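Hi Y.,

Following your request, here is the sequence exactly as I used it, all 411 residues.
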Amino acid sequence: MIREQIETVIIGGGQAGLAMSYYLGQLGREHVILERQRVAERWRTERWDSLTFQSPNWNIRLPGFSFRALDPDAFASRDEIVQFIDSYAAYIHAPLRSGLAATGLRQKPNSTRLIVETQANFFEAKNVVIATGPFQVPAVSLPIGGKALHLHSSLYRNPQQLPPGAVLVIGSGNSGYQIAEDLRSAGRRVYLSVSKHRRVPRRYRSKDYHWWFLAFGDGDTTVDQQKASHFSPLFTGARGGHDADLRRLGADGATLLGSVLGGQGGRLTIAGDLSENLMRGDASLIEFMFRADEHAARNGLDFPDELTEVPQNSKVVSDPALTLDFAAAGITTVIWANGFRYDFNWIDLPIFANGTPSSGRLPAHKRGITGVPGVYFLGLPWLNKLKSAFLNGVGEDAEHLADQIRSDARL
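Below is the corresponding structure, written out as tokens. Let me know if you'd prefer a different format.
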């Protein structure tokens, strides 16, 4: 097989890999990007049709490049995000090798050089940046059985692809909520298993949630400052952006359930934690509003006052089911919105901490720098800060790693 010599190999042609390429290009460093399929492939093939970006258009950017839209306060569609990332790759003249997946990474024997193996050839490099992102393979699902069709959220596209009948969505993060809402808007019968979550308003006192997020400086919270019980905020940009209100979804016809404990043959046992999970979400909303009001008063911001109603327990949660029989409920599809885990089994280097079956092997690093010289991670959640895996936050880490690569080249 052919072996190419190059200074830096970037593995992954998504937002992280392209941001890395931008900064290496600015420094004049030789590099190549290996992308298993196409730029932004997961946005193209692992997102549902009605998905909109969760942050307003004014907050969409990559290093040296901002999203252009007629309405800065609107929310971009999935296809518009794909086009944005595609345009960015062209703008920075990214040295892409599309359709070339990395199948192995190891150290060259008796050398500090690194070998990246693909299905077509080998690359020998001084540096390798692993920028494959956090959404690698679906998380492990519970073995609940039954004759229903089981899909991970990454395989859901639209209500029409599913067989007739009711749908059970397991997991109420952003994906689970938005998919459940998409199904209900199409008139489908929906059961939603509600997990722990953090509730925030889409807009508060005339400002979008992300305006407050930036004003608070939350994105710059470092991994060392991370709260152990941190949950991602629940929101949606669909239909112009609105509050992701689980109780309203229930009032609109979805059946809310607690956490799924297990099951067999399509008969599930449900935890009695629905009310608790919803009330925790309400408490986080009240905390957010108090914090925003305090920030506005402290900084003399003349924003209009706003009264946001925090619903209390209602009939949609007063007597939640503790069991669920697929046949009796007419459930023909189960959508697992339970997230993703890492898959670094192709890497043969001592750069991992012990993980679990649900998480996969966990990268061991300090701000993306591993214990093996020349090997880096980029684009992972909490790589250094809360914003590290965000479209508009990955650039800071990419610049840091590019400076590290330049400094090492001087040695």
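The CA atoms of residues 293 and 299 lie 10 Å apart.

Thanks again,
Q.
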